[in-house]
Design goal:
Shape: globular
Oligomer: single chain
Structural class: alpha+beta
CATH architecture of the largest domain: Alpha-Beta Complex
Number of strands: 17
Low-confidence stretches: 344-352
Largest sheet: 7 strands, mixed
Protein name: HPr kinase
Organism: Niabella drilacis (strain DSM 25811 / CCM 8410 / CCUG 62505 / LMG 26954 / E90)
Strand order of the largest sheet: 3-1-2-4-7-6-5
Length: 352
């Protein structure tokens, strides 16, 4: 059995369903159709995407995703029959030009995508096998598969905006990007994401909210955001999971879905009082975005890397050295917008 046959076999289980639920999304101007017979998966996965829901229309879907557990399908799904999958879910021995697959053998879930059909499949064996983090960024792998043929890229970064002018806040886990994004949200800035965002590389660079979820380590929650504890949607599991929030439902006035991209910021926690910005080279911005993005999403790495290289070449980059004074933290960010990201300065930077 080759990968195309495996995809066709799984797809036939979905298309044989006598009834299923359909949701329509609008993502960066493109229509996405989500089909499932599973009410329990729907209740767990859709909340993170609820800001993208639209009424279904006659427009043909640019992407269709089927998702289910075994109990809701007319036949059982067999695990991928090939060896060679690595820890990142990638298999170098398979021809993935037409159909792509993400599979981690120790988990009971599979992601598939057909480029020709523009159709993705997500299967998890039982609701109990659904990893907790999947509910915070549902179908992320399939969305990444889809971007291979689009002028778009998922980026491991947060995004914050003011007056429709957005910045990417990126870096490895523990660098302070989530804390920075949520602190700025609390200060009144506009929020587009704190973990993964959708970037369009058309005529003008834009960043779109992909998920309305935010995740915070329990210790960080208690230390920096104790007043938000009542908003945590998974309180009973905080010993095993990060705290999850639904941002649009709690901070609707600060939640937006798209902004023009103006800069890339690399936060770094410092043992100093003041927060300050310093200009960095494009290669530094690229090395903050690319490694973690490509580690989480290893398929079509060369194409994804080229897109992130384009971003870092066009956008000005800054190191944001984070100090301990919370008031000055906000002032430093205000200063970035009023000075470094003024219209004239941004134009001058892009022209170079």
């Amino acid at each position: 059995m080759n990968l195309n046959d495996y995809f066709s076999r799984l797809l036939s289980l979905f298309t044989a369903l006598p009834a299923y639920r359909t949701d329509s999304l609008l993502l960066a101007g493109r229509s996405v159709c989500l089909n499932t017979p599973s009410e329990v998966l729907h209740s767990r996965l859709i909340p993170a995407l609820s800001h993208l829901l639209v009424d279904s229309g006659d427009t043909a879907a640019a992407l269709t995703i089927w998702y289910a557990v075994d109990a809701d399908l007319p036949g059982k799904v067999t695990a991928p029959p090939w060896s060679g999958f690595n820890a990142q879910g990638f298999n170098t021995t398979l021809d993935q030009e037409g159909v792509q697959i993400f599979f981690q053998p120790w988990q009971r879930q599979v992601f598939l995508y057909s480029r020709q059909k523009r159709t993705g499949i997500y299967w998890v064996q039982t609701p109990e096998d659904l990893p907790w983090w999947e509910a915070s960024f549902p179908f992320r792998v399939i969305f990444h598969f889809w971007t291979r043929d689009l002028p778009a890229q998922l980026v491991h970064a947060g995004a914050i905006a003011k007056g429709g002018k957005g910045v990417l806040i990126t870096g490895p886990s523990g660098s302070g990007k989530s804390t920075s994004c949520l602190t700025l949200l609390r200060c009144g800035y506009q929020y587009l994401g704190d973990d993964y965002v959708w970037v369009e590389l058309g005529e003008g660079l834009k960043v779109y909210t992909l998920y309305q979820t935010a995740k915070v380590e329990p210790e960080n929650l208690r230390k920096r955001f104790p007043d938000w504890m009542r908003h945590v949607v998974n309180k009973e599991l905080l010993g095993q999971q990060k705290a999850i929030f639904y941002i649009r439902e709690l901070w609707q006035d600060s939640f937006i879905t798209v902004a023009d991209l103006s800069a890339i910021l690399l936060p770094r926690v410092m043992h100093q009082e003041h927060s300050v910005f310093e200009r960095i080279r494009p290669t530094q911005a690229l090395l903050a975005m690319a490694p973690t993005t490509l580690h989480h999403l290893p398929h079509h790495r060369e194409a994804a890397y080229q897109k992130m290289m384009q971003l870092s070449a066009v956008l000005p980059g800054f190191r944001w050295n984070l100090g301990t004074d919370p008031k000055q933290f906000e002032q430093s960010f205000d200063q970035l917008y009023s000075d470094a990201l003024s219209q004239d300065q941004c134009y001058h930077t892009h022209a170079q």
